[in-house]
C-alpha cells in the first residue's frame, strides 16, 4: 500500500467524473492535480446530461453539492409514455423517496460549475487547456506527457493516475485497456427549444412513433429538449407555445461498451473513459460520479486495488438496463411494437414492476456507498 502522504494523484479530465473525484479527495484532505484539454466546464446551453438521480444526490450530500443542486434543479414527477399520442403508461418517479425525487433535471454545465465552485473552496483548480498526449511506461509507474495550449510539454510521474478523460480516453487507449462492445445502427437527433413563457416541466414524455421515438425532456422552466431517432422529428413536435429560439441542436450515435478491468497497476479509469451507453435512462453522468466517489473513498482508505472488482458489477448492471430500455424505445418489427404497446399499459397494475424501474432510474440498483449512513 502507498502511504497517502506520499501519494501524488493526477486526474486526467475535468468533466463531472474528474471534478467529483477531485472534490471527494480534497474534502478528505488529499489534494490531487487535475488537468483537462477543454477550456472550462461545458457550456450551460449545450448540455448533454440533464438527469441527476437520487443516488448522485446521496453521494454529493457530504460535499454540500447536493443541496446546491436541489436549489436549482427541476424535480421530475413522472415519465409519460404514449404511442402516436395515445397514452400508454405514466411512471411515477416520486414513488420511492418522500423528499428526494428519483430524478431531477439540471443541465450538465450547471452541475459541473457547482462541483467546481465547491472544489475551489479546497484550493484545487483544474489546469485547463492541458492535454494528456500519451501515457508511457509500466502501469505501475505511469509517465504522463502533457501538452499545454502554447505547445509546452511536461512529463509527470504520478503515484496514481486516473483517466476521467471521456469516451475517447487517451489514458485508456495508451495503456491498451480492451473496450469491447457494440454500436447501435440508429442515429439520435436532439434539439432544445426556448419558449417565451413557462412550459410544463413536471414530466418527461416519450411518444413511440412506431417505429421510432420522440422524447421531450424539460431543461429549464422555459426550455424543452426533444430527442428522437427520426431525422424529420422537428416536423412532428407539438410545441406548447411558438418557440423563440433553438438553443442547441446535435446528433449522435450510441455504443454500449465497457472496459474489462477498470484499473491496471496504478492507473484507474472512471466515467465515460470506462463505460459508454445510450442516454436512455439518464445513467451516464450519474454512473461516472458514482465511480469517482467510490474511487476517492477507496484511495483514502488505501484500498484502491479493490476498485475494479467493486465497480464492474454495477457498470455491467447499468449497461444491461440501458440496453434493454434502448431496445424497447428503438424496436422496429411491427409484431414487437404491437406487443410492447399492449404490455406497457398493464405495468400500471404491477406495482412491483414500476417500483423496480423507478429504483433503476433513481440509480439505487447499485451497491449502497458504505461511507454514507443509510437513512431508511
Ligand atoms: C445527448 C446526451 C444526453 C445525455 N443525458 C444524460 C443524462 O440525462 N444523465 C446522465 O447521467 N448522463 C447523460 N449523458 C451522458 C453524460 O453526458 C456523460 O456520461 C458524462 O458527460 C461523462 O462524464 P465524464 O466526466 O466521464 O466525461 P466527459 O464529460 O466527456 O469529460 C471528459 C473530460 O476529459 C477532458 N479530456 C478529454 N480528453 C483529454 C485529454 N487527452 N487530456 C486531458 N483532458 C482530456 C475533457 O476536456 C473533459 O474535461 C448524456 C449524453 C448525451 C450524449
TrEMBL record:
InterPro entries given in the database record: FAD-bd, FAD/NAD-bd_sf, RIFMO-like
Keywords, alphabetical: FAD, Flavoprotein
Residues spanning the signal sequence: none
The UniProt record lists the keyword Magnesium: no
GO MF entry, a single one: oxidoreductase activity, acting on paired donors, with incorporation or reduction of molecular oxygen, NAD(P)H as one donor, and incorporation of one atom of oxygen
Pfam families per record: FAD_binding_3
Cofactor field: FAD
Record-annotated FAD-binding domain positions: 6-222, 237-301
Stated name of the protein: 2-polyprenyl-6-methoxyphenol hydroxylase-like FAD-dependent oxidoreductase
Organism: Mycoplana dimorpha
Amino acid at each position: 500500500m502507498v502511504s497517502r502522504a506520499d501519494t501524488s494523484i493526477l486526474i486526467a479530465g475535468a468533466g463531472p467524473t474528474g471534478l467529483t473525484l477531485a472534490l471527494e479527495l480534497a474534502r478528505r484532505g488529499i489534494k490531487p492535480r487535475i488537468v483537462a484539454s477543454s477550456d472550462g466546464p461545458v457550456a450551460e446551453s449545450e448540455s448533454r446530461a440533464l438527469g441527476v438521480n437520487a443516488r448522485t444526490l446521496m453521494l454529493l450530500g457530504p460535499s454540500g453539492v447536493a443541496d446546491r443542486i436541489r436549489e436549482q434543479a427541476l424535480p421530475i414527477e413522472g415519465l409519460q409514455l404514449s404511442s402516436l399520442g395515445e397514452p400508454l403508461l405514466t411512471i411515477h418517479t416520486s414513488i420511492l423517496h418522500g423528499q428526494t425525487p428519483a430524478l431531477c433535471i439540471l443541465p450538465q454545465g450547471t452541475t459541473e460549475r457547482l462541483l467546481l465552485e465547491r472544489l475551489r473552496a479546497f484550493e484545487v483548480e483544474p489546469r485547463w487547456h492541458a492535454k494528456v498526449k500519451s501515457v508511457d511506461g509500466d502501469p505501475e509507474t505511469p509517465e504522463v506527457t502533457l501538452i499545454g495550449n502554447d505547445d509546452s510539454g511536461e512529463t509527470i510521474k504520478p503515484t496514481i493516475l486516473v483517466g476521467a478523460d471521456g469516451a475517447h480516453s487517451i489514458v485508456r487507449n495508451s495503456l491498451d485497456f480492451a473496450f469491447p462492445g457494440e454500436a447501435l445502427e440508429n442515429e439520435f437527433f436532439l434539439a432544445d427549444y426556448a419558449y417565451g413563457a413557462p412550459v410544463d416541466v413536471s414530466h418527461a414524455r416519450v411518444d413511440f412513433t412506431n417505429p421510432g421515438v420522440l422524447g421531450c425532456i424539460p431543461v429549464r422552466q422555459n426550455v424543452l429538449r426533444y430527442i428522437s431517432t427520426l431525422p424529420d422529428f422537428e416536423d412532428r413536435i407539438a410545441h406548447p407555445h411558438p418557440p423563440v429560439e433553438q438553443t442547441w441542436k446535435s446528433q449522435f450515435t450510441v455504443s454500449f461498451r465497457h472496459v474489462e478491468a477498470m484499473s491496471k497497476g496504478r492507473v484507474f479509469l472512471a466515467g465515460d473513459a470506462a463505460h459508454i451507453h445510450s442516454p436512455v435512462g439518464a445513467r451516464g453522468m450519474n454512473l461516472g460520479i458514482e465511480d469517482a466517489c467510490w474511487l476517492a473513498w477507496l484511495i483514502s482508505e488505501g484500498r484502491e486495488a479493490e476498485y475494479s472488482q467493486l465497480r464492474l458489477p454495477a457498470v455491467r448492471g447499468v449497461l444491461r438496463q440501458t440496453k434493454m430500455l434502448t431496445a424497447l424505445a428503438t424496436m422496429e418489427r411491427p409484431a414487437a411494437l404491437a406487443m410492447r404497446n399492449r404490455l406497457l399499459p398493464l405495468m400500471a397494475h404491477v406495482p412491483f414492476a414500476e417500483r423496480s424501474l423507478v429504483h433503476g432510474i433513481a440509480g439505487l440498483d447499485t451497491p449502497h456507498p458504505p461511507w454514507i449512513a443509510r437513512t431508511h
